[in-house]
Every structure is written in structure tokens, then in C-alpha cells.
Amino acid sequence: MKVNVWSTINQLSKERGVQPKVIIKAIEESLRIAASKHFNKGEDIIVDFKPEKSELRVYVAKKVVEEVTDPSKEISLKEAVLHDPEATIGKEIEIELPAETLGRIAAQAAKQVIFQKVRDAEREKVYEEFAPRLGEIVTGVVRRFESNGTILEVSRTETFLPNKEKLPGDQFRPGDLVKAVITQVQKNSRGPQVLLSRTSPRFLVKLLELEIPEIASGTIQVKDVVRQPGERAKVAVYSQDKEVDPVGACIGVKGNRIAAITRELNGEKIDIIEWSADPEVYARSALSPARIKKIVITSKQAKEMEARVEKDQFSLAIGKKGINVRLASKLVGWKISIIQE
User: For residue 102, what are the domain limits?
Assistant: First the structure.
């Protein structure tokens, strides 16, 4: 049977970025499945598809026997001569799927199963492309909105930014460019889903790497990050190079470096502090911008401490709705109580 599908295969290949051999294999599989309804005795169905020559045959091979014991591989002489008038006992004949049936099956396969197989191949390609990029920042174009999130196009692939991963002040319009970090690349029944986040601490770390060369090069290490997305974040940095001021380098001249990141995070305040292995020193820095008079460890076992402050520093140490002391406690890994002296 002549079928002109080669141009369609090439077009699909270019549009979807899927190899022609993947599409050809999908066509063969779909034809084999559909033909099994016509050859319904468990035959071994052979698909001979040469798309570049526009040739297609679907057939089964059976041996002509006097008495049929295996209908999947044998055929009686009486039935064989209906397919091949020259059939004789012991001869193997090929029984082709009728042209009319083949044409109908081929058309249905092209409309249904082929596109399903192409989608499967696309999903596999997306997974292979994005799985190694887990944790990277990407810039996507806003394409549309769904009830639970926003669809962003990244490298011709639809990615998903859930509403819960958006910053409180995020308001997008179609066509907007949005930065986010890749947090998950999933394989499921709907195909791989590339999930993004703007609230993850990882997003802040990657923004710091983009904006601060010393972090990107490894001269300055980001030790810990805690965030209340859209409100405040605390970043602990450290450098083994004694000539490098890690806090000053991150803040930049007149705060220009950290200001750029704050703008991207819709005004989220970012406290850059110097990391320390000493919990007392670390806690004193973590409670910035409050000035701490004294740190008293009340229980090493329970990891509890008190930060004693002057009256005018008390509200600053606690922060709005307790955010400053809460983030400082998470950063240090100790429970910190603010005591006014």
C-alpha cells in the first residue's frame, strides 16, 4: 500500500523536536496494536513500513497444513487458497491486512496513537533537559494563568509556578519575564512537570550568586539562609580569605548589590550576617539590626539561650510580629528568648 506520510513525519519531527525514528516506531506500534483486532488469533503481526518510499505492509506469515493445531502460525489449505491461489501443503504464505482496513487503521493511528507517542517522547525529552538543571534559576515568559498557579514558558517548554511559591506582591501579566528557581522535575501520568519557586531559600542563594561574583567564584560561602518570603530574609556568609569582608562584599557599595536582589524579591529585606561556629557570636549577629548587650546560654542540651538588650533595642530585636527573633532562631538552630534589661 502506498502512503504519503514521510513529509508529515518530517514536519512533526521539526515542530516537536523529536527524532523521525521515534515517530516511525510509534506508527509501527500503533498499527501492530490496531491490526491485532483483525488478526485475532494471537498471530505475530509484521509491520513493513518504509516511509521514505511511501510503502506500508501489515501482514502475518502462516504455514499451510492439513490439520491446524496452532491457528496463530498455521492455516488450512482451504482457507490459504483464498489468500494465495498457488498455496500448497507445507508452503508458508503471507496474509496481508486488506488495503481498505489498513488505510482506515493507518488514518486512525495517525490521529490518535502517533500523537500520544510523540507527546511521550516530548515528555522524556523535557525530563532529560530539565532534570540536570534542578536548583537553577530560569527566566520564563508568562503564558497563562490557572486556578492554582501560573504557566511560564522556558526554552519552549511549559513550566509551572504554583500560587504558594509566588511572593506576596507578585502580580504578573501575559508576556512578563519572571525569574524563578527549578525545585522539582517530576515524571507522572501527565508527563514531567517542571515546578518553579520564588519563595524557596534556594532562589535567594542563586540570586546572590548571580549578583555577587565572590559567591559565584566560591571566595564567599553562603552557609545558611532563612526566609519569610516577601518580608525578611537572613543570609549567613563566610570567607576563609581573611582579606575579604564577606558581609561588605555582599552588601556592595552603598548597598547596591543587595538592593538589586531586594527589588527582584518585591522589597524583601535581606540581612547579611557573618557566620560563626560559636553559637553566642552567631546569635549576636543573627539578631541584627538589633544591638545585643549580652548572650546567655541557658541550656546547651536543649539549645536555648537568652539575648539581653537595652529597652530601646527590645522591639527591634523581636521584630514585627516576632519575625526577627524567629528567623534568627532558625538560622542559628537555637531557641532565642529576648530579655529586656
Answer: 6-123
One domain for residues 187 and 164: yes
Q: Could you tell me what percent of the chain has a pLDDT over 90?
A: 56
**Whether residues 290 and 269 fall in one domain:** no
Residue type, 129: E
**266-292 tens-digit pLDDT:** 999 999 999 999 999 999 999 999 999
- SS3 readout for the chain: CECCCHHHHHHHHHHHCCCHHHHHHHHHHHHHHHHCCCCCCCCCCEEEEEHHHCEEEEEEEEEEECCCCCCCCEEEHHHHHHHCCCCCCCCEEEEECCHHHHHHHHHHHHHCHHHHHHHHHHHHHHHHHHHHHCCCEEEEEEEEEECCEEEEEECCEEEEEEHHHCCCCCCCCCCCEEEEEEEEEECCCCCCEEEEECCCHHHHHHHHHHHCHHHHHCCCEEEEEEEECCCEEEEEEECCCCCCCHHHHHHCHHHHHHHHHHHHCCCCEEEEEECCCCHHHHHHHHCCCCCCCEEEEEECCCCEEEEEECHHHHHHHHCHHHHHHHHHHHHHCCEEEEEEC
Out of 222, 251, 275, pick the residue that ends a domain: 275
Q: What is the pLDDT of residues 22-58, one digit of tens each?
A: 778 877 887 888 788 778 788 888 888 887 777 778 8
Q: Is residue 329 part of a domain?
A: yes
Residue 10 half-sphere exposure toward CB, CA atoms < 13 A: 6
Measured between alpha carbons, how far is 43 from 59 in angstroms, rounded to an integer?
9
Same domain (yes/no): 270, 179? no
CA angle, 284 as apex, 283 and 285 as ends, to 5°? Answer: 90
Q: Which three cell numbers stand for residue 139?
A: 527566566
> Does 113 lie in the same domain as 18?
yes
Write out the three cell numbers for 276. 560563626
Phi-psi region of 135 (alpha: psi -120 to 50; beta: other; left: phi over 0): left
